[in-house]
């Protein structure tokens, strides 16, 4: 079914928005997100590996041809370093590792080089925004104290290590290792990592901590850096398990109804709210269970299962059986969005991602059942003649669509669904690590030094 869904999403993108970033399925035209500046083709690059994995060979070939002829980074525009890294660099790297097509390696390294000026700050903590023509960077105007954001500068590691591996140029890996050094030197409040860090002073901004937006993928990349290094990156490993310990102590709580959730921390005060983005953490805890310290393996799997259950409840307690952007545990409500601006669903993958990890690591059939519920809800409420659209209020009786088919729907949501219902030997965890946009990157074994040379 996820194959048919992919075909519907892709065919309509091709029909109405080919070469543009994303599709507007109701207006039947292209959607341009300012995150990518003037770079075009986000959906194509994000979907490459999904097309390949689903054996949609014709579609993969036409996508490859578009990349060869039209993917252009010489644009005078400001881009989000984080978004371009996870979607474009990640997408190109995966497409290369899966298909062996040289064009993807070449484009990935070319784009990586264009991102390097973002690191030209006093600390080496990169800017959030970069003009890729002029090389001038800055931070989001709304970020606390002119800071860079933890989830943004903390979600470059996997891709940049692979850029060094594929280009033979150590500079990429050096840039991300330096970020770690800066973080290790700093005092962490209660062992927690605030979401804001000023790239000039090297000091934290506001002491806000989140495992949802602004924080989320930083933690994921610590664990995955260790896994991707064939478990040799001891530093990443230690930082991850120490962080999880602090998260358990200070952020993980249980509601009166027995649901485990991860709250947000604001300078020592807890806000009992959990974002859809935070739901990725169930899968992360389960993935990290195997390496957990001293017999804590079962505990981490259990934690993953409890987060998965809470996130399933956030879906189940809506009219449309699709989860809201954020949900709360206060004033007598549990796992329900109480604010209008948190009731939307934009085709996000995090809950399905956690189902996929929980299925692979426990084989409990309920995770496939929950995944199937999500498929039915997506087909009923998000599928339109012109593609798939997000929804403005998941508690409503009738759909109000937002008219955007996000590129991550093809990259992540549909890929995780496909993997959830596939055998474990498709992209097995011992050989592949998924970046935060679900782009699989191979584990780098110690004897891999000249593997690339041998392949050429």
From TrEMBL:
What is the reaction catalyzed? N(4)-(alpha-D-Man-(1->2)-alpha-D-Man-(1->2)-alpha-D-Man-(1->3)-[alpha-D-Man-(1->2)-alpha-D-Man-(1->3)-[alpha-D-Man-(1->2)-alpha-D-Man-(1->6)]-alpha-D-Man-(1->6)]-beta-D-Man-(1->4)-beta-D-GlcNAc-(1->4)-beta-D-GlcNAc)-L-asparaginyl-[protein] (N-glucan mannose isomer 9A1,2,3B1,2,3) + 4 H2O = N(4)-(alpha-D-Man-(1->3)-[alpha-D-Man-(1->3)-[alpha-D-Man-(1->6)]-alpha-D-Man-(1->6)]-beta-D-Man-(1->4)-beta-D-GlcNAc-(1->4)-beta-D-GlcNAc)-L-asparaginyl-[protein] (N-glucan mannose isomer 5A1,2) + 4 beta-D-mannose; N(4)-(alpha-D-Man-(1->2)-alpha-D-Man-(1->2)-alpha-D-Man-(1->3)-[alpha-D-Man-(1->3)-[alpha-D-Man-(1->2)-alpha-D-Man-(1->6)]-alpha-D-Man-(1->6)]-beta-D-Man-(1->4)-beta-D-GlcNAc-(1->4)-beta-D-GlcNAc)-L-asparaginyl-[protein] (N-glucan mannose isomer 8A1,2,3B1,3) + 3 H2O = N(4)-(alpha-D-Man-(1->3)-[alpha-D-Man-(1->3)-[alpha-D-Man-(1->6)]-alpha-D-Man-(1->6)]-beta-D-Man-(1->4)-beta-D-GlcNAc-(1->4)-beta-D-GlcNAc)-L-asparaginyl-[protein] (N-glucan mannose isomer 5A1,2) + 3 beta-D-mannose
| A cellular component annotation (GO) from this entry | Golgi membrane
Q: Which residues bind Ca(2+)?
A: 436
Q: In which pathway does it act?
A: Protein modification; protein glycosylation
> What Gene Ontology terms describe what this protein does at the molecular function level?
calcium ion binding; mannosyl-oligosaccharide 1,2-alpha-mannosidase activity
Q: Which Pfam families did the record assign?
A: Glyco_hydro_47
Q: Which cofactor is recorded for it?
A: Ca(2+)
> What name has this protein been given in UniProt?
alpha-1,2-Mannosidase
Species for this entry: Rhagologus leucostigma
